[in-house]
Amino acid sequence: MEKFTCDELKVALKGIVEIGEDRVKVIDEDRVRNELIDRLVYTSVFGDEKEKACTRWLIRSIALDLDIVPSSIHDLYVNGMANEEIGSWFTVPAMNIRGMTYDVMRRIFKIAVARNVGALILEIAKSEIGYTDQRPSEYASCTLAAAIKEGYKGPVFIQGDHFQFNAKKYAEDPEKELENIKTLTKEAIEAGFYNIDIDPSTLVDYSKGTLKEQQYNNYVNTAKMTAFIREIEPEGITVSVGGEIGHIGGKNSTPEEFEAFMEGYLETLKEYGNYAGISKISVQTGTEHGGVPLPDGSIAKVKLDFSVLEKIGEVARKKYSMAGAVQHGASTLPDELFHKFPEVKTVEIHLATGFQNIIYDHLPEEFKNEIYNWLKTELKNEWKEGWTEQQFIYKTRKKGFGKFKKEFWNLPEEVKAPMMKALEEKFRFLFEQLNAFGTKEIVEKYVKPVKIYRKLEK
Description:
The protein has about 450 residues and is of the alpha/beta class. It has helices at about 5-15, 30-45, 50-65, 75-80, 100-115, 125-130, 135-150, 165-170, 175-190, 210-215, 215-230, 255-270, 305-320, 340-345, 355-360, 365-380, 390-395, 400-405, 405-410, 415-435, 440-445, and strands at about 15-20, 25, 70, 90-95, 120-125, 155-165, 195-200, 240-245, 280-285, 325, 350.
């Protein structure tokens, strides 16, 4: 694949897309898909700064003209799901795509088109933005390009996952850490991330005497960030904001903790103005991000407490008009558990490492060893005492996606084909288990997309 230069782009667009001041008109949709979009998205990732800016604007503008619209899931959550008006309950899959992003997302949208899926989220966490080398504008471009390629139409939910406060940095300078999260959030919203999960759960202090005191730094900063988001969100859009009470990998959450958090959060938010609050709450149920690798590299079985999701979700809906509880760290769970999430009315489930594992399982040995040797050399300071090599590799190989981004993207088709087939099968299985098939109509009943146009900065 070759990137476009700016001069080549002007020629390539002729007869396919007309350029206006802040929008475009698609003249030939088939040629956009067949001749244009692959090179546009490649340039948006690997071009120089001017080429990136130009192609990212073009992709977004083409998407908007084709009614592929970055949107907030807020209204579905606080109206349809909080009021339990959606008929058969479904759990929204929120998928973190760390590498080969365009190729992988194409499979997601392919299934969405074939099976009428509207309830799905593409997301990237604050930490992933760093180690996968995907800034929000790049991630959004890959998402919209994949939707264009596969003929998807309607709202597209792009989410900032775990915009997490660093406890150590917060202890040193609370205002500076808050500003860091605000800066990232602003960047994400400008890129079309109209769903943001704020995560100061790292600041919960279990040494305090009462639940409300324990949650103090969590709810105060969640309220500050909610107010900040409301002040900068585009006109006509209420960004969906999520909170978190249980740091994933820690002790299981309780309804009492949730109520203590909400009491403090709502009191604090009111001080900033009459703002819409969070629409969902992430809780700890016994999982850990990526799973827990055993010395031989296999993953330990997890005891997941579904009653946490069920009880906190019920309180969220009945007392606070929220959609319910969110499950993190779930992609490495046994397949036979996924049907249970809609049964206990889980609102959203976050999935990442399982997809990464499929990619690595299908890599040529030579390329895989190149990545692993790099990890052992460059990240050896992350090798914890007592870990076997298999445990170290399993925990760190996610960081290969940034360093080897171009090599992943340019893998030969004979390598990609079986990998993408396996990923597609996994996505289809998860969507079915979570009752996501056939959700497009209910999503479009509650979510009215707002097109936000921007001029191309020259």
